[in-house]
Design a protein that fits this description.
2 strands, two-stranded antiparallel ribbon, mainly alpha, 139 residues, 6 helices, Arc Repressor Mutant, subunit A
Length: 139
């Protein structure tokens, strides 16, 4: 499994919004500049985050983006699954994968399945607040 630029940038954008939450709505150009992400690339990421309720957008003067919930309520796993599709290490464990005809005789399926569980559990155990160094109720 390799996390793409899209997934990494989405995390950076959401962390930036969390760090600047007190400023209200943050213009895309400000985030792009601080995070050194092209505005064109951000224009591809933001609709996904907005459509899925992770950010709220306001257009026009004074507009921009902001988080829809506190940083402690954003799980890294949720963000990566949204931007990456899923975190499966092998194709047969992907969410949209058809049933594998070899699954009953596959000697490595249990290993890959457990690795997939560990990966998802790990990323689901980290919040934006954790990445920002904030204390959460779970830590």
């Amino acid at each position: 499994m390799m996390v793409s630029t899209r997934g990494r940038y989405a995390l950076r954008v959401l962390m930036d919004l969390a760090e600047h939450a007190a400023d209200g709505y943050t213009p895309m150009k400000d985030i792009a500049q601080r995070q050194e992400i092209s505005k064109k690339y951000m224009e591809q990421i933001m609709p996904t985050l907005s459509k899925n309720g992770l950010v709220e957008a306001v257009h026009g003067v004074g507009g921009g983006y902001r988080l829809t919930r506190p940083p402690r309520d954003y799980r890294v796993g949720e963000i990566l699954r949204l931007t990456e599709g899923d975190l499966a290490p092998v194709a047969c464990l992907s969410c949209d994968a058809p049933p594998c005809s070899r699954s009953t005789e596959c000697r490595t399926l249990a290993m890959w399945s457990r690795f997939n569980e560990i990966t998802n559990e790990y990323f689901d155990g980290i919040t934006l607040a954790d990445l920002l160094g904030e204390k959460t109720e779970q830590t």
